[in-house]
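Tokens for chain A. Residues wanted.
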């Protein structure tokens, strides 16, 4: 990758690790073409990393899953890391999360393995640079779209990452996210779910189990969706004419075990749906390790909207200070 006048090389990858992807807010307005949205699996942590780095909403950041990534700065950078605790170190010293810091030229940033959570977000002031595909640089590997090369590739050893030059900053002192907005990924999450169109087709026992049982995150979990195991949910409707699938949709296939669909989901599906997770609950689920237990809580659209607006307002306040 070569730099142009509006971008410059800022980072070189020494070891790629299992999965690191470039993600902006996502690719919208193209689902009628069968193209999914992509974007950060944990929107919440992605947004905080960008705000702390002094970037506007939608700026491309690096989503690091599991860890194993090692990079060296090619010049001084202002960065912020939010999300999972992946044992990040800078020249072998622990890196503070959820705050802005300086990554000096020649220093090596390493991500080891998950302590809590699965995905960390690295934002660089000015943002990572790449050519948009269908209006977005969001990386969707299955569809070979977006990312640093435009072909949906994950980060590889030897890649050189370009960044946009950072504009003037009014940043003075330490910028940290307030303690009350930092999630504790070790705590069992209660996921808010908006009941769906087919919820009345599930048996009474199944509805009781859905909202009272603990569900275990299955090993079959990725950016497309998360399978949950627990009591069998029975629905009178076995299949439907395929319809559009939104972020957080909780489908129930014939085996009765729900699947919560995330950013790289298919665009249509024909299984009955229990409902849909709110965007913030979908983000929380994306940080759950296999074997972790979760619970569902029924909610209304009004409550979900208030939570989302409060989140965006907090992000805007932080952005105004950076």
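Reply:
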């Amino acid at each position: 990758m070569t730099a142009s006048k509006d971008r410059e090389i800022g980072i070189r990858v020494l070891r790629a690790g299992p999965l690191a992807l470039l993600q902006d807010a996502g690719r919208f307005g193209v689902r009628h073409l069968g193209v999914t949205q992509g974007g950060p699996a944990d929107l919440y942590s992605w947004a905080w990393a960008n705000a702390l780095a002094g970037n506007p909403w939608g700026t491309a950041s690096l989503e690091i899953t599991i860890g194993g990534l090692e990079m060296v700065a090619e010049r001084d950078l202002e960065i912020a890391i939010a999300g999972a605790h992946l044992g990040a170190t800078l020249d072998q010293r622990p890196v503070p999360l959820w705050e802005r810091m300086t990554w000096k030229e020649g220093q090596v940033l390493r991500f080891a393995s998950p302590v809590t959570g699965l995905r960390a977000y690295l934002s660089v002031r000015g943002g990572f640079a790449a050519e948009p595909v269908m209006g977005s640089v969001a990386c969707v590997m299955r569809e070979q779209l977006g990312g640093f090369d435009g072909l949906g590739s994950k980060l590889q050893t030897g890649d050189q990452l370009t960044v946009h030059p950072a504009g003037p900053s009014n940043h003075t002192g330490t910028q940290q996210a307030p303690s009350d907005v930092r999630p504790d990924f070790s705590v069992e999450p209660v996921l808010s779910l908006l009941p769906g169109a087919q919820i009345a087709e599930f048996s009474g026992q199944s509805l009781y189990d859905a909202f009272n049982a603990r569900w275990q995150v299955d090993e079959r979990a990725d950016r497309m969706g998360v399978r949950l195991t627990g009591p069998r949910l029975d629905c009178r409707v076995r299949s439907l004419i395929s319809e559009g699938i939104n972020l957080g949709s909780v489908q129930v296939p014939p085996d009765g075990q729900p699947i919560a669909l995330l950013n790289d989901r298919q665009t249509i599906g024909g299984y009955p749906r229990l409902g849909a997770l709110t965007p913030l609950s979908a983000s929380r689920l994306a940080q759950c390790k296999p074997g972790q237990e979760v619970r569902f809580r029924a909610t209304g659209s009004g409550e979900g909207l208030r939570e989302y607006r409060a989140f965006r307002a907090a992000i805007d306040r932080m952005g105004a200070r950076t």
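The longest strand covers residues 77-85. DSSP finds four helices and 20 strands in the chain.
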